[in-house]
Amino acid sequence: MKLIKFLAIVPARKNSKRIKNKNLIKFKNVTLVENTLKQIDKIKDISLSVISSDSNKILNYSRKIKNCIPIKRPKNISTDQSSTEEVIYHVITDLEKKRFFVENIILLQVTSPLRSIKDIKNSIKQYKREKLKSIFSCYLKKSFIWKKKNNSFNSISYDHKKRIKSQNMKNLYFENGAIYIFNLNQFKKEKNRIMKPFGIFTMTEKNSLDIDTKEDLEILKKLR
User: Fold this and answer.
1) SS3 of 123, please?
2) Which of 156-160, 173-177, 193-197 has the lowest mean pLDDT?
3) Which tens digits make up the pLDDT trace of 47-74?
4) Residue in 122, 114, 138 with CA at minimum distance from that of residue 200
5) Are 136 and 111 spatial neighbours (Cβ–Cβ below 8 Å)?
6) Burial status of residue 157 (CB atoms within 10 A of its CB: 0-12, 13-18, 19 or more)
7) Distance CA 71, CA 61 (A)
8) Predicted confidence band of residue 81 (pLDDT cuts 50, 70, 90)
9) At what angle do helices 32-41 and 117-129 cross, to 10 degrees?
10) Integer angstrom CA distances of residue 105 from 6, 81, 166
11) Which of 76, 87, 120 is nearest to 9 (CA)?
12) Is the pTM higher than 0.85?
């Protein structure tokens, strides 16, 4: 049995609801999939990575990266309704059959192309330093947020009757989906990637860009 202290999982299925072939979009002359795999390749703490996909074309990118295993994802967990947790369980089940013992998982979405190698390295350092069970990335922002309930609206991040200047507001933490690190044994118990004691790793709002809509893609194109 081979011990893997940190396993990186890169989920990247073939189809995308909003943007066609989203995971194969090119940024700075490489696809989003390849961009993430190249980041992983430069992080010493990650001894093994897995790319999970239902696309052979996407899986083939694993050949370009050392210590990267392609795992073909079955159709039943390759739909719009499939959860990332299902993908994680499928990957772990496959690796355990191959006699790999995984201690921690680093989940990296390819749709966060501006996430830096430094962001990943520093989140790992914080995870180890604070002896956490999980950590996830966020960015800070002061926002005037409202919530609609039935036919009425309520301000939830401030009191609209006592409006204050934005600089005097408290920061809100926006989960950006770029980095998740968590203990596998605890994940199996709680069936959740965020578990106590958890930490929050802060990134810049720019580095937090998540390619989910055509508007996000337009922003990325301007940065090429």
Assistant:
1) helix
2) 156-160
3) 999 999 999 999 999 998 889 999 999 9
4) 138
5) no
6) middle
7) 12
8) confident
9) 50
10) 6, 22, 37
11) 87
12) yes
Residue type, 145: I
**Residue 34, amino acid:** E
Residue ranges and CATH numbers for the domains of the chain are 2-137+177-222 (3.90.550.10)
Residue 105: partners with Cβ closer than 8 Å, 6 or more residues away: 6, 7, 8, 9, 88, 180, 181, 182, 184, 187
- Alpha-carbon Rg for the chain, nearest whole angstrom, is 19
Residue 70, helix vs strand vs coil: strand
Strands 100-108 and 2-11, bridge-based pairing: parallel
CB 87 within 8 A of CB 12: no
The residues, any chain, with a CB within 8 Å of residue 66's CB and separated by 6 or more, are 41
Distance CA(56)–CA(38), nearest Å, equals 19
- The secondary structure of 157-193 as a DSSP string is SS-GGG---GGGSPPEEEEEEEEEEEEHHHHHHHSSS
Q: Which residue has the tokens 């995984």?
A: 102
